[in-house]
Amino acid sequence: MAVYLLIFSIIIITCVFLNNISMKVGIPVLLFFLTLGLICGSQDNEFASQQGWFVGDISTIALIFIMFYGGFGTRWKSAKPIIVEASLLATFGVALTAVFVGLFCHWVLKWGWIESLLMGSVVSSTDAATVFSILRTRKLGLKNNTAPILEVESGSNDPMSYMLTAVMLSLLTGSVSTGHVIWEIFSQIVFGAGGGLVIATGSIYLLRHFHVTNNNGFELLLFIAIAIAAYCIPSLIGGNGYLSTYIVGIVLGNAQFPGRKQLVAVFDAITSLMQIIIFFLLGMLANPSNLYHSLIPSLIIFAVLTFVARPLSIWGILHPFKKYSANQLSLIAFSGLRGAASIVFAIMILTSNVTLSNDIFSIVFCIVLISIALQGSLIPAVAKKTNMIDTNSDVMTTFNDFKETTDITFGCVKISETGRWEGKYVKDLQLPKGFLLILVLKDDEQIIPTGDTLLQAGDSVVFCSPSYEDKTTDSLIQHRLSEKSKWAGHMVKEYPNAGHNLLVMIKRGEEKIIPDGNTILQNGDVLVLLKRDIS
Question: Which of 3, 29, 207, 498 has its CA 20 to 30 A from that of 369?
Answer without folding.
Answer: 3
